[in-house]
Amino acid sequence: QLQLVESGGGLVQPGGSLRLSCAASGFTLDYYGIGWFRQTPGKEREGVSYISNSGGVINYADSVKGRFTISRDNAKNTVYLQMNSLKPEDTAIYYCAATTYLSTTYYPMEYDYWGQGTQVTVSS
Predict the structure, then answer these.
(1) What letter would DSSP give residue 42?
(2) Is the separation of the CB atoms in 86 and 17 below 8 Å?
(3) What pLDDT, on a 0 to 100 scale, did the predictor assign at position 1?
(4) β-strand 68-73 against 10-12: which pairing, if any?
């Protein structure tokens, strides 16, 4: 079964950090770019960060630039999102997704596989 599984979400105070993981099973991520998205109730899914299959192309949304870092370990078939200096407005369900597009894209329809999401809550 081909799937992506996110982990690492939770409750954190403003200014804190979390590291999200996106692990693939049933297929290799070597040929896929990975995007991280987030969504809150009543809002459209927002692209947060993208990394190409080789890691040579990395992009961040303006809202997270300088605070979030995306990386990947193809040997572990896993992509990470390190989130620092978290703010209440970062609260959302975070999803990872895999695409064959090897340049930055945040169009959900261009992604082939999606994880189930992990909740991140930033609150004091």
Answers:
(1) T
(2) yes
(3) 81
(4) unpaired
Give the whole-angstrom CA distance, residue 110 versus residue 100.
8
Token readout for 38 is 């987030």
Mean pLDDT of 76-82: 97
Kind of pairing between the strands at 118-122 and 10-12? parallel
Residue 19 clears pLDDT 90, i.e. is over it: yes
User: pLDDT of 26-75, one tens digit each?
Assistant: 989 999 999 999 999 999 999 999 999 999 999 999 999 999 999 999 99
Alpha carbon of residue 89 to chain centroid: 16
Name the residue with tokens 């390190």: 82
pLDDT range class, residue 23, cuts 50, 70, 90: very high
Q: 8 in helix, strand or coil? A: coil
Long-range contacts of 46-52 (CB under 8 A, 24+ apart): 46/92, 46/106, 47/106, 48/81, 48/94, 49/81, 50/104, 50/105, 50/106, 51/79, 52/102, 52/103
Judge whether 53 and 42 are in contact, CB under 8 Å.
no
